[in-house]
Amino acid sequence: MKAKLRKVLAVLIVLVVAFGWYVTCLGIGPIDSIKDTMKFGLDINGGVYVVLEADQDEVAKLSDEDLRKVMEQTRAVLNNRVNAMGISEATVSIEGKDRLRVEMPGVENAEEAIQQIGQTAQLSFLLADGSVVLTGEDVKDAGIDTDTEHGGYKINLEFTSKGADKFAEGTRKAASGTVTVNKAFKEAGVQNTAVVIMLDNSIVTAPTCQTAITQSTCEITSGGGGYSKEEASNTAALIKGGALPISLHDITSSVQTATIGEHALNKSVVAGLIGMGLVFILMILMYNILGLFADIALMLYVLLVLWIMAGIGSVLTLPGIAGIILSIGMAVDANVIVFSRIKEEIAKGKTVRVAVDQGFKNALTTVLDAQITTLIASVVLYEIGSTTVKGFALTLMIGIVVSIFTAVVVTQLFVGLIAESKTFGKSKYFGVNEDGTPKKILKKEFDFIKNRKVFYMISTAIIVVGLVCSVVRGFNYGIDFTGGTMLQVDMGKSVSSEEIKDALSDYELKDLTVVFSGKDNEQAVIKTVNALNSEKRQELVNTLEEKFGITDKDVLASEEFGPTVGKELKTNAFKAILIAALCMLVYIIFRFKSWKYGVASIAGIVHDVLIVLAFYAIFNITINNPFIAGILTVVGYSINDTIVIFDRIRENIRLHHRRETPEEIINHSVNQTIDRSVMTSLTTLVGMLALFFMVSTSIREFVLPLIVGVLVGTYSSVFLCSPLFYEMNKREGQSKYVRDNLNKKSKK
Fold it and tell me: CA 479 to CA 481: how far, in whole Å?
């Protein structure tokens, strides 16, 4: 590419970045700001979600293909039901094989909404004696209209052709007055001329018939002044929902208020901006003008990630924001790898221009291998994780792909221009000292192989202590693993945990805990291992209202997890780590043409997972759903760091294997890449720490395993994986001269 064209493209990129950030923050003309364009999750906008599971006895009778069809039909029915309730942007999606997740953003009356979608049995029309006239499958449509005769509103029904025939026969029997009312209906006040509309063993309505209805439509009216609009709408929605092909029951439900989500969003944005600012400063301090242009590429990177997510209709959640900030640190890594290679080429005596070209060529393979292995973990996370975790994984996947583009294409454009500049195309602007040596964070050369047994002992000791704690005390599993209920309530004043426990003592809640958060600790987070459905949770809320004078609006969030969900989370976590590790092993063996690189890398992953688990066991930190995302991200991050080091070891073995021992080659390789490991860890940590200290508890649950994982992943890549690779190679592939030298050194 000609220099003039490069300059034009560079100027255009700077203008695009400046204009893009203006539009992103403020919007312009017909283009809204990113805040108005992006779809936000329930943890930000507030609302209700419920996870419904198909009856397992019914599932057992179906083949996989039949189950898939039934669940799709059920999804369509529930989708009609929530749409008929008038909830904007409500979604119904299939989770796994036999579950449905219903999300209803902006819903204020959570109890009513959950009851509406939770009424999941088949709809049926019965005579007063309990005999079935027709089912929901025979109902074509249901709507409402004003009732001019009685006032208020009425319900209009339209039947299918078969349904009309069944209804005509049923209403003929009902109108005759000869039907005997069964005991249950008699207690409910049903008359013998009624057609009872039932849903989930509950009477929706029981209108009476005076004559047989032979047409395909009919009206349901209320003589006492007509139905209210809300009553008519809800009843019509239930009828229109139709018959469900399979019975469902709720296993998980959650209610979030928009207030708590918006507060967390604002804090997350501020924390993200602070984290980005610190990363930008670090890059400039370490790489001078190279760092400045890398920052421009990073600003473009964030723009692309945000607008790609908005463009594909992705829903941004609070964990997703954590994913963006984490991916910024990983995007920096690609730039750091490139800059390190350029410095080394200049230090070898090459001109700046040649060093830039060669540095990018040498770094490209490393960047691709490192990012692809992390991408594997993200894909597994997306496929196996829950809906919340999927948002985090999708953000990470988009970030990885975009980071490769900005580092390889955009950064290369700017660095190439600098190299051709008479003013800045000098070694001192590329991180090289006046004596021709590259500038380094750690100037001393370390002997990592010689002290490897010390590192083995440190890791073993931590893992053993963690194992003992996990056996003696057990892990501190959250309610999403054990099953249970959580309520977050704004008490409006300072209240002791004992007062709350006393108020709820009649409910016999197991392992009841109360912790406080928010301003002046006025928000109480109440947890119990009892899995309480929405009705039972409302009873607790009513009790708190009577005791402390709060209202429904003061209930900021409530969640319920069935015990089966927790078991699946544990199983899926193990499965995800296993699948990710196997996929990475195959990829590394394929790319490095040796099983030893793969085995040493996977050993590092196992070590990191065990260390993080030990950390949680020793300090008794709660393990919950976000922990799975954290663990898998740790796996991806750790392998990323290891691949960069192994790539350098592979290169040096090819160049120096006849002159140096494996110990010398590996030590030299790790020392060559140690600055990159430190720099990447710093840039990743500053963003994570800003989130950890500034945002809500739910974000901290995502961020904590990431922080621990970054530190542990860096440690294992440098101090364990490389020595393990040495153990497998210390006597292979050497000339007789080198082997003799190695024997002499080992005897000393």
Answer: 5
Distance (Å) of CA 171 to CA 133, 145, 174, 186: 9, 22, 5, 19
Instruction: Summarize pLDDT for 160-172 with one digit per residue, the tens.
Output: 999 999 999 999 9
Other Cβ atoms less than 10 A from the Cβ of 553: the count is 10
CA 669 to chain centre: 36
Q: How far apart are CA 223 and CA 193, in angstroms?
A: 15
- What residues are paired with 248 via a beta bridge? 54
Distance (Å, whole) CA 39 – CA 36? 8
Predicted pLDDT of residue 429:
79
Q: Sheet containing 153-159: which strands, arranged edge to edge?
A: 139-146, 153-159, 217-220
Rounded distance between C-alpha atoms, residue 40 and residue 256, angstroms: 13
DSSP assignment of 654-668: HHHTTTS-HHHHHHH
pLDDT mean over 515-521:
77
- 555-561: strand order across its sheet: 91-95, 99-105, 47-54, 248-256, 555-561, 484-490, 523-528, 513-517
Q: What is the CA radius of gyration of the chain?
A: 32
Residue 656: which of 729, 720, 595, 734 has the closest Cα?
734
Alpha-carbon distance 701 to 628, whole Å? 10
According to the model, what pLDDT value does residue 658 have? 67
Whether 349 and 382 have beta carbons less than 8 Å apart is answered as no
Contact 574, 635 (CB under 8 A): no
Rounded Cα distance between 496 and 516, Å, is 9
CA separation for the pair 681, 326 (Å, rounded):
11
Cα–Cα dist 531/510, whole Å: 10
Residue 308 burial (10 A CB sphere; 0-12, 13-18, 19+): middle
Short-list 550, 321, 536, 343, CA closest to 439:
343
Contact predicate 387/92, CB 8 Å: no
- Residue 161, classed as helix, strand or coil, is helix
Which residues are bridge partners to 47 per DSSP? 105, 256
Per the listing, tokens 């909830």 go with 87
Q: Which residues are within 8 A (CB) of 571 and not within 5 positions of it... i.e. 6 or more apart?
A: none
Asked if 126 contacts 132 with a C-beta cutoff of 8 angstroms, the reply is yes
Report the distance separating Cα 57 and Cα 72, nearest Å.
18
Per-residue CA distances from 706 to 117, 700, 744 (Å): 36, 10, 44
Select the more confidently predicted residue: 174 or 202.
174
**Side chain identity, residue 481:** F
When pLDDT is cut at 50, 70 and 90, the band that residue 456 belongs to is very high
Q: Which residues contact 437 (CB under 8 A, 6 or more apart)?
A: 347
Tens digits of per-residue pLDDT, 397-440? 888 888 888 887 888 888 888 888 888 888 877 877 777 777 77
Give 731's pLDDT tier (boundaries 50, 70, 90): low
Instruction: Show Cβ contacts of residue 357 under 8 Å, excluding neighbours closer than 6 positions.
Output: none
Q: In angstroms, rounded to a whole number, what is the distance separating the alpha carbons of residues 697 and 318?
A: 11
- The CA-based angle 672-676-680, given to 5 degrees, is 165
Report how far residue 495's alpha carbon sits from residue 207's, in angstroms, rounded to the nearest whole number: 50
Measured torsion, CA atoms of residues 683, 687, 693, 695, in degrees rounded to the nearest 10:
-170
User: Are 484 and 529 spatial neighbours (Cβ–Cβ below 8 Å)?
Assistant: yes
Sign of CA dihedral 108, 113, 114, 115: positive
CA distance 711 to 606: 15
Beta strands, E only, 424-536:
484-490, 513-517, 523-528
What tokens appear for 632 in the block?
Answer: 């898998």
How many whole angstroms from its chain centre is CA 543?
34
* Mean pLDDT (whole number) for 230-240: 72
Which amino acid makes up residue 90? A
Q: In angstroms, rounded to a whole number, what is the distance separating the alpha carbons of residues 410 and 408? A: 6
Give the 3-state secondary structure of residue 151: coil
